[in-house]
Amino acid sequence: MDRKLLFRNFVHFMANVHQITNDMTKDAKTEDITQVQYKILEYITVSQSVTITEISDCLHVSLPNTSRELRKLIEKNLCKKVSDESDRRKYYIQLTEKGNALMEEAFRKIQLQFDERIKHLTDEELQEINKAVEVLQQKIFS
Amino acid sequence: MDRKLLFRNFVHFMANVHQITNDMTKDAKTEDITQVQYKILEYITVSQSVTITEISDCLHVSLPNTSRELRKLIEKNLCKKVSDESDRRKYYIQLTEKGNALMEEAFRKIQLQFDERIKHLTDEELQEINKAVEVLQQKIFS
DNA sequence: GTAGTTAGTTGTCAAATGATAATTGTTTTT
DNA sequence: AAAAACAATTATCATTTGACAACTAACTAC
Question: Is residue B99 helix, strand or coil?
Answer without folding.
Answer: helix
